[in-house]
Design brief:
Length: 389
């Protein structure tokens, strides 16, 4: 395949989504931390060093005070000068709704987690590598003590080679070993014949691509992508030990693994550093993150919030998730509550304390009101390639 160096292109719509969801994620993590606390509150001293952990660009105390509809500030019972934060009545109600959604989606979470483990070489992952991904994968906060223990036929916690606790897959499931790309081709009626050719080994599956403005007219890029699409498709659930790490075939296999992993996330995105921590287990080559800028029709790198996030382009259309998961819909509604609390400040408590919180949440049909209309792409030659976080 010709080595074409492509410039990074800024997508303002996806950047906006990542920026907004950073706040939603931080609010969820704070809610979970307060719920886990034996005293049901957290002190300002405890929160003072959590800004980086939460992925915030502002101090945690400033952030938590922005949302009085979720978090209530009051003086410490013994030390009046020490601020404390607990969940409001509305926050507790929302926390119960979130638990119910996770319970209803448990089977889906089990499948999602099984697929991640099935893509690894040893069929297991260290829990410390999996823990940062729990929000992206839609796992409940107590997945290590709840979800895993409830499904001993799927998961087992074992000691790894370095003495760390690892989550191991118990049984291989043939049903789960069909990749998302294969499923999409099975469903496409107009591509049915092409998929039969793929099953016979006569054709290769092609990745959906959506190029930034300007790339589509470049003949060199077109020729490169056509050659790439003709390469055999290797399922991320197949053994890749025998493939030459420097070959074009391995490059397409890496694209397939990253494509599948991002599809398993709730919002079709995750932080680049999270993927780096899984490099060895997913059998990815060194500096594999260059793939993201080599294939801008498949992936998008965002530099928002002082970090690098990779998103799957086909997961979004006009700034919205194409097929939102129930957890994603819940998080959109949480964003609505957060925004109203920010607008109305002290009055938010009275305005957002219904017997049933759904009375004040927007209906699914009104989800478009949650996002602003933002231009999608910049010109393809306006930015340079991002190299590091």
């Amino acid at each position: 395949i010709a080595k074409v160096r492509l410039k990074w292109v800024k997508n303002r719509s996806l950047d906006h989504i990542i920026d907004v969801q950073t706040d939603v994620k931080a609010a969820c993590l704070l809610k979970d931390a307060i719920s886990r606390s034996p005293a049901s509150y957290l002190t300002a001293k405890t929160l003072s060093d959590t800004q980086k952990l939460l992925g915030l660009t502002v101090p945690t105390l400033r952030f938590i005070r922005r949302y009085p509809s979720l978090f209530e500030e009051y003086p410490h019972p013994r030390y009046p000068s020490l601020p404390c934060f607990k969940l409001t009545q509305l926050g507790e109600t929302i926390q119960e709704i979130e638990k119910k959604i996770h319970q209803d989606s448990e089977a889906d979470a089990v499948e999602r987690l099984c697929r991640v483990l099935m893509m690894t070489k040893s069929r297991m992952l260290p829990l410390h590598s999996l823990h940062p991904l729990k929000w992206d994968l839609g796992l409940p906060d107590d997945y290590a003590t709840g979800l895993i223990r409830n499904h001993p036929n799927h998961f087992r916690v074992v000691k790894g080679t370095h003495g760390s606790n690892c989550l191991r897959l118990v049984d291989w499931s043939e049903e789960f070993s069909v990749s998302t790309l294969q499923k999409m081709n099975e469903k496409e009626e107009d591509a049915h014949e092409g998929y039969r050719d793929f099953k016979r080994g006569k054709a290769a599956l092609q990745f959906p691509m959506s190029f930034p403005r300007g790339y589509g007219s470049r003949n060199k890029v077109k020729a490169w992508m056509e050659e790439f699409q003709k390469l055999p498709y290797i399922s991320p659930y197949e053994d890749s030990q025998g493939i030459d790490p420097s070959s074009d075939l391995m490059e397409k296999r890496v694209v397939g693994v990253l494509h599948e992993f991002l599809f398993l996330t709730i919002h079709k995105k995750t932080k680049r550093n999270y993927l780096r921590s899984l490099r060895e287990e997913l059998n990815l080559p060194h500096r594999f993150t260059r793939i993201f800028t080599r294939y801008p029709g498949i992936f998008y790198l965002s530099l928002k919030c002082k970090t690098t996030t990779v998103a799957l382009r086909e997961g979004y259309q006009r700034g919205r998730l194409v097929d939102p998961h129930p957890i994603a819909r819940y998080r959109d509604k949480l964003l609505w509550v957060m925004r109203n609390g920010l607008i109305y400040r002290d009055k938010a408590k009275e305005m957002l304390l219904p017997q049933n919180v759904d009375d004040y949440l927007p209906a699914d049909d009104d989800d478009d009101d949650l996002e602003e209309e933002i231009p999608d792409e910049e010109s393809y030659d306006s930015e340079s390639e991002p190299d590091s976080d």
